[in-house]
Write a structure and sequence with these properties.
The chain is α/β, with parallel strands linked by helices and 478 residues long. The protein is built from 19 helices and 20 strands. Strand 6 and strand 7 form a beta hairpin. It is globular, with a radius of gyration of 23 Å. Keywords: Cell membrane, Lipid biosynthesis, Lipid metabolism, Membrane, Phospholipid biosynthesis, Phospholipid metabolism, Repeat, Transferase, Transmembrane, Transmembrane helix. Its EC number is 2.7.8.-.
C-alpha cells in the first residue's frame, strides 16, 4: 500500500506540473502567433490561471492554421505548385484568362488564379435538382470523377451516390473520393469498404500528422466538389444525405443552392481538389490537365480559401465583395457570426446607401450559432443593415449578390469558422444573365422571409437575451 500511495502521490504532483509547463509553452505560442490582442489576452489569462482545462482547449481551438499544410501550401516547391505554374503558363489557357474590373481582379489575386472565360453556369436550386444533375454528370463520366464532401451519410441518397461511384469505377473510370474526418465522423466503415472494393480511391482529410496536430479537430474541410473529366464541376452548399433533399427528421424543406459550371474554370476547381488530395494521400491523382472545351461565354472565378493560406483569404473575399457594392449587397447564409472586418464593411456599405440585406434561417439547426447571430443584430441594424429570417424550412445556402456585377455561390458561411478556420470554395460570376437568375432566386427567398428587428429581440425573454450574449462569447469558434 505505501508503494501504491507513493506512486499516486507522484503522479498527482507530476500531472499538474506538466500542465503548468504546457500552459507556459502555449502562452509563448499565443503571444507570438495570436491573431488579435483580445484573443491573445484571453488565452494567456486562461492558460496561466486555469491550465488544467485551458491546455486541452488550446490544443483543440488555439491553432490558427494547420502548420504542415500551411508550410506546404506556401513553399512553392511541391508538386502542386509546379502543377499550378504549368497551368498558368499554358498558352491555350492563357487565351481564356482575363482581367476584369479592379474589384474582381483583387478577388482573383486571393487564389492567384485568374478569371476564366468560356464557361456555362447552371444555377441548381434545392436537393432534387442538384443531385439529379450531379448523378447524371457522374453517369456520363468517361475518364475520371473527383468527389469531395464535408458530410456523407449512408442513407438512401448516400447509397445512391455510392452506387453511382461504384458503377463508374467498375466501368473503368478512375474515381477519387475525399471526405472530411470530422464532418463524416459517423460514416459506416462498410460504406468505405464497398467503395474501395469496387476500385474507388478513397482518402480522409485529416488535419495533419504529428502528435499535436491530432488534437486540432477544430479545422474542417467544408468544401463540396464534384469534377467530371476535367470539364464539368459542381460546387455549393449541399452535402450528401437525405436531409439535403428535405427528407430529414427536423426540416420538411431544406433550402440550398449549388451551381454546375462547364468549361475552363473547372481546372481551377480541380486544382483545389488535387491540393487537398495531395495533402491527404501524399500523391497526385492520375487525371488530365488539358484545357477543356468552351461551353459558353461566361467568365467565372474560383476562390478556394482556408487556414493554410498566408492571409485570412475568406474574410478578405467577403470584405472585398461588400466594399465593391454601390447599390445592393445581399448575403444569404445559414450562420451569421461575422468578424470585426466584415461587420465594419457591412456598416459602411449601409451608411453609403447600399441596400444591405442578410438572410438567415428562422429555425436553427445549431442553436448556439443561431443565438450568436441575433447578438449582432443591433450592431449592424443601427447602420441600416436589414436582417431577415427565412420561414419556409431551413435555409442552408451560401450566396452573395453585389449590384448587377457579381454573384457568389459556394460553401462559405458568414461566420468565423468559414472566414478563418474551415477550408472553403466559392465560385464568383460576373455574367449578367447568370446574375439575374441569382437575383430572381434571392427575391423568391426574401419573399418567404420576415424582417428581424431589434424590437423582436428586446421583446424576448431575459433568458433568450442572456443566451444570445453568452453565445457571442464563443463566436471565434462557431
Amino acid at each position: 500500500m505505501p508503494a501504491v500511495q507513493l506512486v499516486i502521490e507522484y503522479w498527482m504532483l507530476l500531472i499538474p506540473l506538466c500542465l503548468h509547463i504546457f500552459g507556459i509553452l502555449f502562452i509563448f505560442d499565443a503571444v507570438m502567433n495570436g491573431r488579435t490582442s483580445q484573443g491573445t489576452i484571453a488565452w494567456v489569462m486562461a492558460l496561466f490561471f486555469f491550465p488544467y482545462l485551458a491546455v486541452f482547449l488550446y490544443l483543440i481551438f488555439g491553432a490558427r492554421r494547420i502548420q504542415d499544410y500551411s508550410t506546404a501550401h506556401q513553399s512553392g516547391t511541391t508538386d502542386i505548385h509546379h502543377l499550378g505554374k504549368m497551368l498558368l503558363r499554358d498558352r491555350r489557357l492563357r487565351e481564356l484568362m482575363e482581367r476584369g474590373t479592379p474589384q474582381i481582379d483583387v478577388l482573383s489575386d486571393i487564389y492567384q488564379f485568374p478569371v476564366m472565360k468560356g464557361n456555362r453556369a447552371t444555377l441548381l436550386i434545392d436537393g432534387e435538382e442538384t443531385f439529379n444533375s450531379i448523378l447524371n454528370g457522374i453517369a456520363l463520366a468517361q475518364h475520371y470523377v473527383l468527389v469531395q464532401f464535408f458530410i456523407v451519410h449512408a442513407d438512401d441518397l448516400g447509397n445512391r451516390f455510392k452506387a453511382a461511384l461504384i458503377e463508374r469505377a467498375r466501368a473503368g473510370v478512375k474515381v477519387y473520393f475525399l471526405y472530411d474526418r470530422m464532418g463524416s465522423f459517423g460514416l459506416r466503415r462498410s460504406y468505405i469498404r464497398d467503395l474501395r472494393a469496387a476500385g474507388v480511391h478513397v482518402a480522409i482529410f485529416r488535419v495533419g500528422s504529428g502528435w499535436l496536430n491530432r488534437f486540432h479537430i477544430n479545422f474542417r474541410n467544408h468544401r463540396k466538389i464534384v469534377v467530371v473529366d476535367g470539364e464539368k464541376s459542381w460546387v455549393g452548399g449541399h452535402n450528401v444525405g437525405d436531409a439535403y433533399l428535405g427528407k430529414g427528421r427536423r426540416f420538411a424543406h431544406w433550402r440550398d443552392t449549388h451551381v454546375k459550371v462547364e468549361g475552363p474554370v473547372t481546372l481551377a476547381v480541380q486544382l483545389s481538389f488535387v491540393e487537398d488530395w495531395h495533402w491527404a494521400r501524399g500523391q497526385l491523382p492520375d487525371i488530365s490537365w488539358a484545357p477543356p472545351p468552351e461551353f459558353g461565354h461566361e467568365p467565372v472565378l474560383c476562390i478556394p480559401t482556408g487556414p493554410g493560406d498566408l492571409v485570412e483569404s475568406c474574410s478578405l473575399m467577403m470584405v472585398q465583395a461588400i466594399n465593391a457594392a454601390n447599390r445592393r449587397c445581399w448575403i444569404l447564409s445559414p450562420y451569421f457570426v461575422p468578424d470585426v472586418a466584415v461587420i465594419k464593411a457591412l456598416q459602411l456599405a449601409a451608411m453609403r446607401g447600399v441596400d444591405v440585406r442578410i438572410l438567415i434561417p428562422a429555425i436553427p439547426d445549431k442553436r448556439v450559432v443561431w443565438w450568436a447571430a441575433h447578438s449582432y443584430l443591433a450592431e449592424v441594424a443601427v447602420a441600416g443593415v436589414r436582417m431577415y429570417t427565412y420561414q419556409d424550412g431551413f435555409m442552408h445556402q451560401k450566396v452573395f449578390l453585389i449590384d448587377d456585377s457579381m454573384a457568389g455561390v459556394g460553401t462559405a458561411n458568414l461566420d468565423n469558422r468559414s472566414l478563418r478556420i474551415n477550408f472553403e470554395i466559392t465560385m464568383v460570376f460576373t455574367d449578367t444573365d447568370f446574375i439575374h437568375r441569382v437575383e430572381r432566386m434571392c427575391r423568391t427567398d426574401f419573399s418567404a422571409s420576415t424582417p428581424l428587428t431589434t424590437d423582436d429581440v428586446y421583446r424576448r425573454s431575459l433568458a433568450f437575451r442572456l443566451a444570445i450574449r453568452a453565445a457571442r462569447l464563443f463566436s471565434p469558434i462557431l
